[in-house]
Design goal:
InterPro entries: DHMBA_Reg_Transcription_Factor. This protein is mostly helical. 61% of the residues lie in helices and 0% in strands. Helix 5 runs antiparallel to helix 6, helix 14 packs antiparallel against helix 15 and helix 15 runs antiparallel to helix 16. The longest helix has 25 residues. The relative contact order is 0.13.
């Protein structure tokens, strides 16, 4: 094997080496002073001075992962540098495994699991490689056992959702069980919906030849999830319904997933033409189209058809958009691109936005998603991706857990 082939074999993923400035690239002058790096935007300072027990293993793990994130912005690496980073990465995984299985535990283990999931997701180019989803499952398991962690921004609501599903409660009982209302409850409903959809879509993929009974059970669960998330707009103040709010796009993406799955399962049970004539199909189609239009309109705001250029004539990154917001936009656009019933022209426009996210924000995963065929609707990836990236996005938006008076979305 020559040095070029060896380089390709140990590079994290093919497009990573060309994804310059993935996390820390320069921004326009009007954006100075904002928090733009993924690491700083999400992770709280490591309490190295207080490290003891398993933290002696987990804190070096976090340092290795932070270095791996920084490596993404390098345009070229030597073979030796890749070998060293891979060795360190494997060591980090062993350290995390030790910290998780240790009786003493570590408050930073959830942080490491989240970082592993985010890194693997960003560099993933193979839809069949679910390493990042495995890490996400580990992160959720740690939240289930440890509760909210201060080392990852705003996990309290997601932790509530995990606990809520463990108890198997009815979402209509939420107002009586929570100390927050309004946007906080809306976020909790979305997290509950995503976790339920994640479980449902994962089970669906295991069914090689689904029976009608299986699909009927699926539709029953989907119908309940769909009804639950329809409660969300009434819980939000008008300001939270701004078209540029990333959480609103997240809501639209969830609506696309549930409505698309309901439509596809309806066709499976009733055959294509009879189901298309039903009022339910017409209503679901309108829901999907409205959500797709909303996501595309917002993406056009950040990624206009006419690309802006920097002083050197190169495409500049969208002003005011952080990396975490770009990742949320990526998964929302992917949901829109594989939505049931949209035409080829719409799909191509949204895929063009995914290419822009991949190129201008330097996210390899977006380039991979842009090439996904219409028939390969991996809704399980959509809900897993939104679950992963929405944790940091919420720290900067108006959808907080602060109690507010309920007003409608107008």
């Amino acid at each position: 094997m020559d040095s070029q082939e060896e380089y390709k074999s140990i590079a994290p993923r093919g497009l990573v080496s060309s994804a310059a400035n993935c996390l820390t690239g320069p921004r326009c002058s009007s954006c100075e002073g904002r928090n733009h790096t993924l690491i700083a935007n999400v992770l709280q300072p490591t309490r190295s001075a207080e490290a003891d027990g398993t933290d002696h293993a987990i804190l070096p793990t976090i340092a290795i992962l932070e270095a791996s994130f920084r490596d993404l912005h390098e345009t070229a690496h030597t073979v030796e540098a890749h070998r060293d980073r891979q060795k360190q990465y494997q060591l980090a995984m062993r350290n995390l495994s030790f910290a998780i299985t240790s009786p003493d535990g570590s408050p930073n283990s959830a942080r490491s699991a989240w970082m592993f999931a985010m890194y693997e997701m960003m560099v993933n180019l193979d839809a069949e490689d679910e390493t990042w989803i495995v890490h996400l499952d580990g992160f959720l398991a740690l939240l289930r056992s440890q509760g909210p962690t201060e080392s990852v921004a705003d996990t309290s609501i997601l932790s509530h959702a995990v606990e809520f599903l463990e108890r198997g409660n009815d979402v209509h009982l939420l107002p009586d069980q929570l100390t927050f209302d309004g946007p906080g409850t809306a976020l909790l409903l979305m997290d509950i919906a995503k976790l339920r959809l994640k479980n449902l879509t994962s089970e669906m993929r295991k069914l090689n030849t689904p029976r009608k009974l299986d699909i009927q059970k699926l539709r029953t669960s989907l119908t309940q999830i769909h009804r639950d998330i329809l409660l969300i707009p009434s819980m939000l103040p008008t300001s939270a319904c701004d078209s540029n709010n990333p959480n609103l796009n997240e809501y639209r993406a969830i609506m696309i997933v549930t409505a698309s799955l309901l439509s596809e399962s309806g066709i499976f049970l009733e055959s294509k033409q009879p189901y298309r004539a039903t009022r339910e199909c017409e209503k679901l189609s309108r829901t999907i189209q409205d959500a797709v239009d909303g996501i595309y309109a917002d993406s056009a705001h950040h990624f206009p058809a006419k690309q802006s250029r920097d002083d050197n004539g190169k495409s500049s990154r969208p002003c005011g958009m952080t990396m975490t917001e770009a990742l949320c936009m990526m998964w929302c656009c992917f949901a829109a691109s594989v939505a049931w019933g949209i035409d080829a022209a719409q799909r191509q426009k949204i895929q063009a936005v995914l290419w822009r996210i991949g190129g201008e924000m330097r996210v390899p995963k977006a380039m991979s998603l842009a090439t996904t065929k219409a028939y390969d609707r991996r809704y399980s990836d959509v809900v897993a991706g939104l679950t992963l990236v929405s944790v940091p996005v919420r720290a900067d938006t108006g959808w907080s857990s602060t109690p507010v008076r309920r007003t409608g979305c107008h």
